[in-house]
Amino acid sequence: MSPMASSSSSNSILPVSVSPLDDGRQREKERLIKGDEKAFKGSSMTKRGAYAAISYMCCAVLLILFNKAALSSYNFPSANVITLFQMICSCSFLFALRHWKIISFTDGGSLTTSDVNATFVPLKTLMRTLPLALTYLLYMLVTMESVRGVNVPMYTTLRRTTVVFTMIMEYILAGQRYTRPIFGSVGLIVLGAFIAGARDLSFDFNGYAVVFAANFTTAIYLATISRIGKSSGLNSFGLMWCNGIICGPILLFWTFIRGDLGMTMNFPYLFSLGFLVVLLLSCILAFFLNYSIFLNTTLNSALTQTICGNLKDLFTIALGWIIFGGLPFDFFNVIGQCLGFVGSGLYAYYKLIGR
């Protein structure tokens, strides 16, 4: 969640108040618009789309590691509470940035005084984003819990199968169709995931079930962004704001009735400096990650977002193996990982050349 995410190619990255443009500001506007040029000749991906994809991968790698540290290394009892903290942090950042008129919540980029109210967006628009907010809440809760029960290398391996769920949901919700090269690269990713996890799939059935549930909720969430996000009139900041103010109270109530807040208060490392640093960095990274997800999905596609998740796995697996361990060396696992990376690379190549 950082710079702005507009589905229109003519919007500036961080829209500010609309006023007459002098020559200098006009040149700056033209410079920003040029950021929507193609990554290179013949490419179907814009430069801004490429930057969004890279930003997402960097944030995702770091966030997985910090979440894993909080839930496993410190044995924090509730993933829901971490999700709640992340939402509160995100809404606080957005409120401050919007209040100071640094960002806008709409595609037009205007910051008129009339729309600076309690919610910053009209109630009708807020209700239109309700399905997106609910799928976001489900995605956040299940994904956070899925990190706990599986080691980092196998977690990233199983998460690659999200691409299949995403293709199915995009076809159902948006009628999206893909070419044979895309199908081939996706098939290679899935084959690699099953080969890598073949010797380990009999262990911790519940952990694997939660990961596959996370794959399903992720696919629904990304497809919903692709469909609702582009027609709501809101940019990525606006969509994130709606998610936060809709889901925050629901999650607060849920953690209260489940007793998660009580467990948090009794957590022995709650005021430990190391844990607080991990939690703070997790919240900051969640803000930027959620923004980059919106930006990547609206500028590119839900499937591109999923493939980016596969490409960043190389770094996640390497760092996770070094920091957390949990998966001994195995020949088939390495072969499966390599197939997955090759498939992800082929998809990226076909996307860039426009096939």
Automatic annotation (TrEMBL):
| Low complexity compositional bias, start-end | 1-21
Annotated segments matching region Disordered: 1-25
Transcription: is it a keyword of this entry?
A: no
Q: What's one Pfam family here?
A: TPT
Q: Tell me what topology the record assigns in the membrane.
A: Multi-pass membrane protein
Q: Which residues cross the membrane?
A: 49-66, 78-97, 125-142, 181-199, 205-225, 237-257, 269-295, 307-325
The record ties this protein, via InterPro entries, to:
Sugar_P_trans_dom, TPT_transporter
Q: Which residues form the Sugar phosphate transporter domain?
A: 56-347
The reply to whether Endoplasmic reticulum figures as a keyword in the UniProt entry is no
The record's keywords, sorted A to Z, are: Membrane, Transmembrane, Transmembrane helix
Annotated signal sequence is none
| One GO cellular component term noted in the UniProt record for this chain | membrane
Compartments reported by the entry: Membrane
The record's PANTHER family line, in alphabetical order, gives: SOLUTE CARRIER FAMILY 35
UniProt name for this protein: Sugar phosphate transporter domain-containing protein
